[in-house]
Structures are given as C-alpha cells and as structure tokens.
C-alpha cells in the first residue's frame, strides 16, 4: 500500500466542544454523501466517546437533528461486543439509548451486529448482510460513505486489539475476534473494509489517550502493538477530531486548531 497518508486533526478545547464538532462532522459528511449518492451508509463505533455526540444529534433543541437527512441514512456498526442487545456492554444498546430512540429512522435503516449469537455465526451473518446490502460480488468490499472510529488507550480501534488474530484478517469483511486481554469475544469489521470507506475519522478525547495517539501517529510502525496504525484509508486522508488533552503530545495546531501530519502509508 504505497503513497502518502495525509493526517488532518482538529483539536477542540474540551469534551463538550469535541461532541459539538463531532455532531457537526457527522451531519456534514452525511449530507455530502447524500448529495453524491442519494443515500449515506455509515459505520459507527461504540464505547463511551461517541455518546455525547449522539445525544446532540438526537436533541431537537440542538441544530443538528433537523439538518440530518435521516430518511437517506443507513447505520451499520464497526464492531460489537458478544453480548445481547440489551446488555450494558452492548454498542447497539448505547446507540439506541443515546440516538436511535429519539430520531426518525425505520428499523430497516439500522443494521446491528447480533452480539447475542455465537461469535462466528454473528460474524458470518453480518458478512452476508453486507454482501447483500452492498450487492457485492467475489472479492469486492463494501464502500461505506463514512466510518467513525474510536481509539483505546492500548492503541486498539474497532475491535482490532493488540496481538489478536483480527490484525491479520485480510480476506473477510467481518470476523469474530477473541480478545484475551478482556477475556471476551468481539465482532468487528476488518481493517481492509474500514480503509475502503470514502471517509474515515477518529474521535478521541482524554489525556489517557495522548501518549498512545502520539505513538500511533508519529511513532514507528508496529501494527501488532498499535492496531490503529492499520487505519490508512484508500482515499489517502485520515481525519481526527480530538480534544486538547488527547492532542497534548501532537505537533501544535494552526490558528484554527487544525494540524496536519504526513506519513508513508
Ligand atoms: C468498542 C469500540 C472501541 C472504542 C474504543 C474507545 O466497542 O468499545 O468500538 O473501538 O472505539 O475502545 O472507547 P472509548 O470511546 O470508550 O474510549
């Protein structure tokens, strides 16, 4: 995978500003996709970081809900914990509670990973769903209009955890990944699928992420230890929306709070 990767990061002063910038980015990118293709198919991550932005998108008293072309949007997941959809750890449950319960999406616009099933079965089901919905043939991959990622303080993203089998999965769209560090199974999109998206962005906040973010973006390549380094979008552009604490060890931004890094892909 030759060529340059242009990494653009936007730094916000605090968690509330991070959530507002993220809500705005979702709306703008989804509007652009709908203008281009008449629809927007996005894949979202779970965890805690996205919650505040999802709540802003769902809030009728905020500017974003009314700007979102909900009827043209399909929501998929980047990854899911292998738990039932009403489990406290479920990414689907978090999204339902912060977003889906409050916005006008039909059930056929929401495509959850079936965390309640055997991991391999859930992964196979989701792979089939992607093949059908994106009308894929042979080795084709789905091209999401937007993939939203988080990053753990161990450098994982999606459910691509350090030193786990998922790092080496090249020929599937979705896999079940055993994560010994958490003694659990996860379902995750594979990194080639993520990189095939039209746009990929990270949302990262908190000082506990600052060192690993610096290592991922500016340190030597070590995909086994830092799986987030696997994210090198085919578009050649990677966007990050950060708060000041997470960005503390990155090169200073310009007057508009924007920084740019170049890397070999
Ligand atoms: C998940 C996410 C995962 C998340 C990171 C960061 O299932 O947990 O998809 O990849 O983005 O773990 O999580 P926080 O946002 O909670 O820090």
Order of helices and strands: EHEHEEHEHEEEHEHEE
Measured between the Cα atoms of the first and last residue, the distance is: 6 Å
How many domains? The number is 1
Taking the sheet with the most strands, its summary is: 8 strands, mixed
β-sheet strand percentage: 15-25%
Q: Percent helix among the residues?
A: 25-40%
Strand runs, count: 11
The structural class is alpha/beta
Which ligands does the model contain, each kind named once?
6-phosphogluconic acid
Overall morphology: globular
Low-confidence stretches: none
Task: Give the spatial strand order of the biggest sheet.
Answer: 5-3-2-6-9-10-1-11
CATH class: Alpha Beta
What does this structure look like?
With 265 residues, this protein is α/β, with parallel strands linked by helices. It has a single domain (4-264), classed as Rossmann fold (3-Layer(aba) Sandwich), CATH 3.40.50.1360. It contains six helices and eleven strands. Strands 5-3-2-6-9-10-1-11 form an eight-stranded mixed β-sheet, with helices on one face. Strands 4-8-7 form a three-stranded antiparallel β-sheet. The mean pLDDT is 97. 6-phosphogluconic acid (6PG) binds next to loops.
